[in-house]
Amino acid sequence: MLKFAILALALILSGLAGAKENKKKLSEVYSEKGYHYSALNEYFIETFRKPITVGMVSRLEELLYYTGIEILEDYEVQLLKKYPSSSTRFIIGRKAYQKKNYKEALEFFELMHPDHRFFPESRMMVAEIYAKQEKFDKQDEATNTCRQTAEKLENTAINKKIKRYFRMINEICLVNRARHLFNRGKFQESIDAYDKIPKKSYKWPYILLEKAWVYYQMGDYNRALGLLVTYKSPLLNTYFFPEAEYLTALAYFKMCLYDDSLTVIGQYYDSYRPRFNSLSAVLKKNMKSQDYFYNLMFKPGEELEKHEEFVKQIITRLKKQVRYSLDFNTIHKVNEEMREIVAKEPLKEQKRLVPHLHEVKTNMVSKINYNAKSDIFQFLETVPFFSEELFKLNLETISRKKDLVYKNKKLIADRSRGDYSNVNRSRFEYFWKFHGAFWADELGDYSLGLKSNCRAVRIEDERR
Amino acid sequence: MKTLGLFLGMIWISSSFAQETRTIYEYKKYERFDLGNLEVKGQLIAPGDISVRERERKRFQLELYSRKDFNPFIRKDMESIR
After folding, report:
1. Shortest CA distance to A296 belongs to which of A324, A322, A277?
2. What is the dihedral of CA A309, A315, A317, A322, to 10 degrees?
3. pTM for the predicted model, two decimal places
4. What is the ipTM of this complex?
């Protein structure tokens, strides 16, 4: 009888222990309900004091697959180091890269798994580090790995947004390579790399300006002007850069087409500068706001009504950025989770979970607000710089014209007209004349055919 | 007596040498030059024609901005992802 009692007690105790072991953790319960952000928070509360096991790391990766890593950006590096997963290594490496601690960045990026979804992005930063260290072979190797892995992941991506993210990484790796080739004076190789970017790419409108600079440095001013004229097409009217206006005026100036140069400068001063200045004044008033620029992304507001078209152009560009898409997606998912909790959970549970989610949302709003603000002001800061450069160019153009008068000379032609013979093209390029209409498939392939007007002749000689 | 006379004579000579001689210089208070009547003797060696050497007008050329690297674009792209 006693034996039986002892056996029964042992069975009960082992059953209790098993039940305790099988009892699900709160983070797992939240995960099952689809409350991934709450689960992630709970996961850290449950694990940060314990020794981390392989299972715990896999679980973290699983949670981050749903939440993304944006909310871990503010976490302490020491805490993240406790969890040796590819995602945390990516975040730590990225933070080290931002602090220019390249040794640590490389160390953490090298520990990432090659099949991990952030691996291509990590290779992009590795390529940049090697470029800064002038280890160009390693830079090329990292760029190629970045492109190959991004392409592979793009092909297996489950939705359009993720596909777009990998496409973007692939293209940035390629564009950065072209940029570094330009920095090293390898202009033709740089152009060849730029030409690999397809026209339907999100990056493509931006690289027109860069390609124009490469052609300018090669001395092909006609091709530079042809690329810049693409921004005048109706399809690209949201892309306005003061630098493009400056480069246009400069290219005309280099070809001694002074009147054209002065026309471009005049248009800039009459049209764009006043608009920039008034826009800048309105935005500066709201510099310290925590959500003004976030709200601006959805509605310009009364103050900016008269600049609406212009603001819309800047905001459209911001919205096309990957980080905006990722951050806004996080806010959307957090909102969804809050709605679910409020609808389905008892009040006690709501009070436990909702404040944290509110905090996550506020942080993301502040982040978008900050990014939008810094992007807008970085853009607006280019205006005074190029206004000054255009002013200097204006003075120089007038001075050159004055010199001709003093020397009793004039340029070979008052206005050199375009001619096919002045177009530099490779044997693979065809030629069509421009008839006043922009065709989408032709955009970015234009070249002006202007003859350099830099030969001066004496006016007396000309009269004879 | 002769010796006394010689002695007195010597004293007189030495005292007359020791006496300071005062010289007063006087300058002309006014002098007139008649440049028209001045004649210079010599040969004229200046060139017959007036020639001015042509000189390039001094110009201060402004240094115009030309982009040498794309580093700001690289930085911006890296930031635009996250």
Report:
1. A324
2. -160
3. 0.78
4. 0.83
Residue A3 has pLDDT above 60, yes or no: no
Amino acid at A315: I
Instruction: Lowest mean pLDDT of A104-113, A129-138, B7-16, name the range.
Output: B7-16
Instruction: For tokens 């945390």, name the residue.
Output: A88
Do residues A210 and A162 make contact, with C-beta atoms less than 8 angstroms apart? no
Question: In the predicted model, is pLDDT for residue A231 greater than 60?
Answer: yes
Q: Residue A146 CA to chain centroid, in angstroms? A: 16
Facing A179 at nearest CB: one of B57, B64, B74: B74
Q: How far apart, in whole angstroms, are the C-alpha atoms of residue A124 and residue A146?
A: 6
CA dist A331 to A118, A409, A455, Å? 21, 67, 62
**Mean per-residue pLDDT over chain A, rounded:** 85
Nearest alpha-carbon partner for B69 in A459, A131, A44: A131
Helix (H, G, I), strand (E, B) or coil at A457: strand
Tens of pLDDT, residue by residue over B5-59, are 777 777 776 666 555 678 888 888 888 888 888 787 887 777 666 677 777 667 7
Question: Which amino acid, A290?
Answer: Q
CB A247 within 8 A of CB A212: yes
- Is pLDDT at A2 greater than 50 in this prediction? no
Is the CB of residue A376 less than 8 Å from the CB of residue A283?
A: yes
- Does the pLDDT at position A463 exceed 70? no
Chain B positions touching A246 (Cβ under 8 A) are: 65
Q: What is the rounded distance in angstroms from the CA atom of residue A320 to the CA atom of residue B70?
A: 21
Nearest residue on chain A to B77, alpha-carbon basis: A172
Does the pLDDT at position A259 exceed 50? yes
Q: Which position has the token pair 């200045």?
A: A277
DSSP string, chain B: -HHHHHHHHHHHHHHHHHSPPP------S-----GGG----S---S-SS------PPP------------HHHHHHHHHHH-
Q: Which residue spans within A318-460 are E strands per DSSP? A: 409-411, 456-458
Count Cβ–Cβ pairs < 8 Å, chain A vs chain B: 65
* End-to-end CA gap in chain B: 135
A90-128 burial by CB neighbour count: b if 16+ within 10 A, else e? bbbbbbbbeeeebeebbebbeebeeebbbbbbbbbbbbb
Q: How far is B79 from chain A (nearest CA, A)?
A: 8
